[in-house]
Write a structure and sequence with these properties.
It is a single chain. It is built from eight helices and no strands.
Length: 237
């Protein structure tokens, strides 16, 4: 009987040890699992935080570039026309940079800020002229025919736009020029002829030989090169 009791005790001891061992193993497994999950969570959090930091750096750099281009643009305008106030110059360059973003999204047209500034300089000397002898209006001297052409492309009524409004004028003026530029496969000189004299006249060969066209093209292209050097000065980062 004693042997039986001892055997039972031994069995119970073994069972207890086995259960205890199993519990210890389970605890170790759970601990390892929890630690692994915790490490993964920590890594995801660190990666996410780093991405946020990197994005913030990109945003800061882009803001810095934007402000530098804007300030350089203001200085260009003020240097060209002392009659233009700082507020007007700021409005012109900010509107132009906004138009660049809008046209990229609206019509997949990527405008050149220096070239657009050069066209505005040549057309109006950065003054919002109401109307000239050819009924051209605003900073980019948009004619009724040019406005109608843009509105036809966009399937919008002409009445939606006012060429004495700076945003409307720069939006339609830039679209009109760069649409012609794309149609002419990047031929800037021909696109400037189109803008200055009219698209239809280009193909007749009459306008292309006129001296005033040559003068117009030279003024715009020379100013565009000059403005590009000044506008992006200090942006070598």
């Amino acid at each position: 009987m004693l042997l039986i009791l001892l055997s039972l005790a031994s069995v119970e001891g073994l069972v207890f040890e086995a259960v205890n061992y199993k519990n210890n193993v389970n605890r170790e497994i759970n601990y390892a699992y929890d630690k692994n999950v915790s490490n993964k969570i920590e890594k995801v959090e660190m990666d996410t935080q780093q991405k946020i930091i990197n994005q913030q750096k990109v945003i800061q750099v882009e803001k810095l570039k934007y402000n530098m281009i804007k300030n350089n643009g203001i200085n260009i305008i003020l240097g060209e026309n002392p009659r233009v106030s700082w507020y007007q110059a700021n409005t012109i360059i900010e509107t132009l940079m906004n138009v660049k973003t809008v046209l990229k999204a609206k019509s997949n047209i990527d405008i050149s800020i220096p070239l657009s500034l050069a066209i505005i300089k040549t057309e109006s000397t950065f003054e919002n002229q109401r109307e000239n002898w050819a009924t051209a209006k605003g900073y980019m001297q948009m004619t009724n025919i040019a406005v109608s052409s843009v509105c036809k492309d966009w399937n919008e009524p002409v009445s939606n736009y006012n060429m004495n409004n700076i945003y409307d004028n720069l939006l339609l003026g830039n679209y009109y020029f760069y649409k012609n530029l794309n149609d002419l496969r990047g031929d800037v000189e021909s696109a400037l002829v189109c803008y200055n004299q009219g698209y239809g006249n280009l193909w007749s060969g009459v306008v292309a030989s006129r001296g005033d066209n040559s003068s117009y093209m030279s003024k715009v292209l020379n100013k565009s090169y000059e403005y590009e050097q000044k506008l992006y000065s200090g942006l070598d980062f």
